[in-house]
Amino acid sequence: IRRSAVLFLACVLLSLPLTSAYGAQNKEEKAEFLVARRQIQDPFFEHSVVFMLPAPKSPLIVGLIINKPTRVTLGKLFPNTPEFKNRTEPAYFGGPVDVRTPGVVFRSATAPENALKLYGDVYLTFDSDLISKIFQNSQQASKPRMFLGRAQWAPGQLQNEIQRGGWYRIQAEGNLVFSSHPEDLWSTLHSRAAPSKYIRYEFR
Questions:
Q1: Which of 33, 52, 185, 196 is the most exposed place for a label (fewest CB within 10 A)?
Q2: Statement: residue 199 has pLDDT above 70
Q3: With contact defined as beta carbons under 8 Å apart, do 89 and 105 qualify?
Q4: Taking the alpha carbons of 181, 141, 124, 193 in that order, is the dihedral positive or negative?
Q5: How far apart are CA 90 and CA 71, in angstroms?
Q6: Which residue, 109, 103, 158, is CA-closest to 128?
Q7: pLDDT at 173
Q8: Residues 6 or more apart from 121 whose CB is under 8 A from it?
Q9: What is the DSSP string of 33-92?
């Protein structure tokens, strides 16, 4: 695992309140999706659904594109690593930043070290030792998902893109991160977020 990703995760964890990254919360977090509007034609973000990471005090805004599986299986990506040798599920394109760095979204009943809590019992890690343990554990209720890279903006940059009509912002449904039909996510969420063409707007 590249050092930059480990440092990034450490900075995010340090920026969060302890109750957000570790331990139980009295109130469930509200996760958010960015859904690319049709105007976006950037090859990295066209038709993308981005799960936004909970980092309110971080100087950067970070997310994972969750609906773009690659053609590379985990077994081919790590042919010399026993935990991945026979894995046939694809790695996902998480975004254009640090694409050589794998991150894994997974479920855990307890808060692991070196992992960022996304919501509920779902966590993200870039830590190589933890990733190995996750894929060694065959008792996972839902399969962990590996993402290569991440999406990243400066606060003003993303706000400008939203104001120019590039993105819809909607409340996330957490289980969609593990969707078995990622190819359908963009069209489904875009239809849900887009204003109906039958609505009439009256200005007074």
A1: 196
A2: no
A3: no
A4: positive
A5: 6
A6: 103
A7: 79
A8: 107, 108, 109
A9: EEEE-TT---TTTTT-EEEEP--TT-SSEEEEE-S-EEEEEHHHHSTT-GGGTT--SEEE
